[in-house]
Design a protein that fits this description.
Elements: E1 3-8, H1 15-27, E2 30-35, H2 47-57, E3 64-68, H3 73-80, E4 84-89, H4 92-109, E5 112-117, H5 127-135, H6 148-166
Parallel strand pairs: 1-2, 1-4, 2-3, 4-5
Bound molecules: 4'-phosphopantetheine (PNS).
Residues 7-9, 36, 38, 41, 69, 72-73, 101, 104-105 line the site of 4'-phosphopantetheine.
Length: 181
């Protein structure tokens, strides 16, 4: 039985991700959504939050489960018995980013990557844009599975509070000087 891994940082899982997972599941009988760490990004949501969100989003899909990826994706694929990685493409920028990863995974372990083109109506849906819209108070609930918007907003508040707490206290030199009379 062919098992496919749909990997990503899923920070957060979006309706675009769900579309790709559904398409992957139409190609193979078993799909493992691998929630991984992208070392070039700093995640907003914790791993537990990203796992919980992805699990809730795919709960009604037979043959789909969600697991954390603790290290290299190719090691995870081997542990899961997966021979193929499935990723979604929204456009040329995705292709440019994905091809080096696909080549590296093939180089490391002979793991092949299959690209599926996602639903065109979701081509603008990216986790990074979702977070940016939310950061400035914009609406994101129609871009993510139910409940994810609240989680993202709470995480952004958490981060803003932490940044405020870490900010240096004003020193005497920061005090506005009195105007000479
Ligand atoms: O959703 P993303 O951030 O584009 O997904 C990238 C991800 C997490 C799939 C990639 O960074 C990854 O596979 N990370 C696991 C560690 C690994 O294997 N790195 C080498 C990838 S070529």
């Amino acid at each position: 039985m062919t098992i496919a891994v749909c990997p990503g940082s899923f920070d957060p899982f979006t309706l675009g991700h769900l579309d790709v997972v559904r398409r992957a599941r139409r190609l193979v009988p078993e799909v493992v959504v691998g929630v991984a760490r992208n070392s070039s990004k700093s995640a907003l949501l914790t791993l537990d939050e990203r796992l919980a969100v992805a699990r809730a989003a795919v709960a009604d899909l037979d043959g789909v489960r969600v697991e954390p990826v603790p290290g290299l994706l190719v090691d995870f694929c081997r542990e899961q018995g997966a021979t193929v990685v499935v990723k979604g493409l929204r456009g040329g920028a995705d292709y440019d980013a994905e091809v080096p990863m696909a080549l590296m995974n093939r180089h490391l372990a002979g793991v092949e990557t299959v690209f599926v083109v996602g639903d065109g109506s979701l081509a603008h849906v990216a986790s990074s844009l979702v977070k940016d819209v939310a950061r400035f108070g914009g609406p994101i609930d129609d871009l993510v599975p139910p409940g994810v918007g609240d989680l993202v907003r709470a995480a952004l508040e958490r981060r803003a509070d932490a940044a405020a707490a870490a900010a240096p206290l004003p020193t005497s030199t920061d005090r506005p000087t009195e105007e000479p009379r």
